[in-house]
diacylglycerol O-acyltransferase
Amino acid sequence: MDTSLAAFESCQHASLTASPWTVPVTFCLAVTVLLSYLFPFLVSKPPPTNRRLKRRLTTTGLTTLLTETDTNLSILFSITVLDKIVSKETLVAQLRSRLEPAFFVRFRSRVVGRDFCLVEDFDVADHITVHQLDTSQDVHEYAETLNNVPLDMAMPLWKLHMVHVNDQTFLLWRLHHCLGDGQS
């Protein structure tokens, strides 16, 4: 008999009889692995109401909320210019189709503590306001008046103001930093 094979056989035999607990422990481990695999399929949960998302605010995103003052809001402001008049209804329809994927779930959620909570009756139209400028006012002056207006914490933290001037539509976007990572 080959000496290396004999050493292997004696080693293999020794490992099986090394402890009286080897077989019961192996069996328990196998059952645990099997149950951990089957458990998600065996347990059915009702769909949650006011669902809390798994992803929480980042530390930086939370800091942007906690360190805000009346004159230093953590709100991103952007102006998009469209070269035609777009109705609120058209824009609402476009945004509804775009905000449905899971990627934009934060835009349909409000901040509660450190978590984003999905707003079940979310409606894009609630976040869009059409504004008529005074004859003496231009778009940038109106945008400046929005700069230090806080967002409503009872709603998802973004707002869109539409302004029509001549044959153009100006979209004044206001988004809180915490909708992203708080750093961008």
